[in-house]
Hints:
Elements: H1 12-21, E1 25-29, H2 33-42, E2 46-49, H3 53-56, H4 68-80, E3 86-90, H5 100-114, E4 118-120, H6 128-136, E5 141-146, H7 152-155, H8 165-181, E6 185-189, H9 193-202, E7 207-210, E8 218-221, H10 223-226, H11 244-260
Parallel strand pairs: 1-2, 1-8, 2-3, 3-4, 4-5, 5-6, 6-7, 7-8
3-methyl-2-oxobutanoic acid (KIV) binds at residues 29, 48, 50-52, 90, 187, 189, 210, 220, 222.
Amino acid sequence: MSAFKDTKRITTSTMRAMKEAGEKISMLTAYDFSMARILDDAGIDIILVGDSASNVMAGHETTLPITLDQMIYHASSVVRGISRCFVVVDLPFGSYQGDSKAALRAAIRIMKESGAHGVKLEGGIEVKDSIERILSAGIPVMGHLGLTPQSIYKFGTYTVRAKEEVEAEQLEKDAKMLSKIGCFGIVLEKIPAKLGKKVTKMVTCPTIGIGAGPDVDGQVIVIHDLLGITKDFNPRFLRRYLDLYSGIKGAVESYISDVKSVDFPNDKEQY
Ligand code: KIV
């Protein structure tokens, strides 16, 4: 199924080779050791330690509250669980906007303290200086355009971005710039499929879509959404492969009932 399945480690060069060979890149989020181990064992190409941890792990409404220390904690747990995939970590809100030296310090902390392989940050021209400074230290950087959740209070809603020509043109310019300065990939979130296809053709680095149609170089979704652990989030692009919410709830209900009826523990005569 994959021409790259025997690859010992996924690197930025592997991703570029996948784009050139027309093989789609698979990316999922993970935030802890056990989940990362399963995803890596299943053959995922990239794990994103997303700042969506702020939502699905910590229960915040937005991605804004998560801190650099918390991202490093999640990232180092993930890195201990993998042996093959590439691990990229979100720089949290406030750690890179407006101060490229602070951005570099944050990226270095992530790389040194977690052992991850690259960082991701949101935005285009407005964060170019930060990206260039991080790249100059030899740290792989992934861009993120379209719906950028760290700017949710500017947008006001989580609906599709770049439907209007002016915003679409700016996104194209930003994507070209990110690819030209050396980003190893770009996440395109919630943009029209036509624009996802156009941007993918115009840049040399791989594009990874989330709600950006089929004609991008790879796809990413949040693991809790794929597994059906979350249940109130139902965008059109989402496919749930399991209903773990019901599965876990049912298992816990059975356990409670077994404890109450003293059906659990097993092998009572041994104790
Ligand atoms: O934080 C995250 O999970 C993300 C993905 C949705 C792309 O940035």
